[in-house]
Amino acid sequence: MEPPFKTTAAALCLLGLIWCGGARAADQVTICYNYDCAVHATVTFTDSQMKHIKELFRGLPDAAAERAAIGRAIGLFETFAGEQTPTYRDKGGDENDDGVDGRMDCIDHAHNSTAYLRLLERDGYLRFHRVLDPVERAPWLVNVHWAALIEETASKREYVVDSWFFDNGHPAVIFDLDDWKRGARPHA
Questions:
Q1: DSSP SS3 for 80
Q2: Three-state DSSP class for 127?
């Protein structure tokens, strides 16, 4: 049997780790890249990075402002993840980064954006929206496309959060789900 002081010391050490930041690993998400989520990586966001994200959501007056902040936050999360993974090499669409380590197709983007959104939701940054599972469209039964999905809690309207169109770190575009399903794309 262990002496009581060893058990107490171990418990105090564990509490110290939690208190002093060992638990900050909670600001981790698993992302994926190299098309179809072929490679998975865990990225950790620092206190400073999360503070920067939190500032985007401070004092927002309504759901529209929160959607704009969500788009910017997704871009920042991508930038921060790109500091830890080769995803900084990702180019908008699929044509400009074919074969590059760190490339992302819409499946990767939908997965990663959903992971970032769930982190925002968990940490209480989202006041006007809730995160749903990713959604797909197939406007012509070819070119299937996936994106993250949120719902405005008051109106129950659904919006797509799509970061696939632009290079790593660019804010995600947000479309009304019905418009997106009809093939909406960002203006050039």
A1: helix
A2: coil
